[in-house]
Amino acid sequence: MKWPAHGSNPAHLYEGAGIKQPDSIVDFSVNINPYGPPQSIRDQWNSWFSVISDYPDPYGKSITRQIAQLSQVDEQQVVLGNGAAEVIQFLGQLWRGCKVIIVQPAFSEYETACRAYGCEIEYVLINEDYTIPMKELAVKAEGAAAVFICTPNNPSGMAFSEGEMIELLDRLSSTSCCVVVDEAFYDFAGSFTVAGLIQKYSNLIVLRSLTKMYAIAGLRLGYLLANESLALQIARFRPHWNVNALALKAAETILADREFVDWSREKITEERENMFSFLEKEGFQFSRSVVNFYLLRDPRLADQKPLFLFLLEKGIVLRHTYNYPGLAGKWLRAAVKTEAENNQLKEALQQWKKQS
Ligand SMILES: Cc1ncc(COP(=O)(O)O)c(C=O)c1O
């Protein structure tokens, strides 16, 4: 079958797998905050109705100001996108026809976007101990326009260390190769960020998304941070009114709601660690994620397809890893969801163990 390239929209997956979709399913393939969207959006939603009849602010001035303040950068260093996915498209356009390096496994849109603009793509696979192969990367980066690296990483949920990220930036600082650090899941880990370094490293671009933590994937809002001259070059590709008026309203409200982020991070950490104890006890392998999703595998299987299909039949939808270079079906990705939902996954995994 042709496996869908992304999580979410499980109907496509069931159709492709030729399995009748059960009446009730739990979707672990989409990695958004199970406790969102924040109540503040629900409370104000109806009052925003009037904004849909006019064009949104093409510059998203107010939200840009808020992002700049939160990230402690200048407003000129922020470029808004209709989701981080659109910002990645801008980068593809910026480096049209150039060579780009992707540290794999990673989010698939870097490659999709760069291919669409005729880039030459090279991979660097991370080491087995989850460190960056620095020397190989530095050699490949020579003559490349950019390196894409995702931390905390999608799909493993693990984060590269601060020391490694600084070493990477230092090594490439004297080259013309940009370093794109995708921090779409930064809020869930709340740990080290390179955002404060855009002034120091003029080749650094940081990607962020609001769709994950705030569970507004359907509304769409993401942005990048980069030094002013790079940000200006990238902003040329931004279509007028690219961020819709409701997304701007919602973002203004939720970015002021830091309590929601802290509370969600705590709850998700608790649920994740609980799940890890279970997986350890039951003999499954898993990635030491610091965010709201993780990789898991039954070590008895080289390809996890039988487990994946077993769970699909039971209405438990995980994310396959066939299109992640370096993983190729050896793992499955699962989101951390609410306690009740995680219990459903635990139950199904126990049934799998019993019958296999
Ligand atoms: C690592 C990573 N970056 C960026 C994105 C795109 O996020 P957005 O919903 O803001 O377009 C995703 C979406 O899954 C992602 O996993």
Structure in words:
It is a single chain. The chain has helices at 10-17, 39-44, 61-71, 84-94, 109-116, 134-141, 162-172, 186-189, 228-235, 245-254, 258-282, 305-313, 339-355; strands spanning 26-27, 78-81, 99-104, 120-125, 146-150, 178-182, 204-209, 222-226, 285-286, 293-297, 316-317, 332-335. The strands form three sheets. It has a seven-stranded mixed β-sheet with strand order 2-8-7-6-5-3-4, with helices on both faces. The protein has a three-stranded antiparallel β-sheet with strand order 9-10-12, covered by helices on one side. A two-stranded parallel sheet has the order 1-11. The radius of gyration is 20 Å and the shape is globular. It folds into two domains: 10-30 and 259-355, Aspartate Aminotransferase, domain 1 (Alpha-Beta Complex); 39-254, Type I PLP-dependent aspartate aminotransferase-like (Major domain) (Aspartate Aminotransferase, domain 2), CATH 3.40.640. With 356 residues, it is an alpha/beta fold. Pyridoxal-5'-phosphate is lined by residues 83-85, 107, 150, 154, 182, 184, 209, 211, 217, 222. Decarboxylates L-threonine-O-3-phosphate to yield (R)-1-amino-2-propanol O-2-phosphate, the precursor for the linkage between the nucleotide loop and the corrin ring in cobalamin. This is L-threonine-O-3-phosphate decarboxylase. Keywords: Amino-acid biosynthesis, Aminotransferase, Cobalamin biosynthesis, Histidine biosynthesis, Pyridoxal phosphate, Transferase. Its EC number is 2.6.1.9, 4.1.1.81.
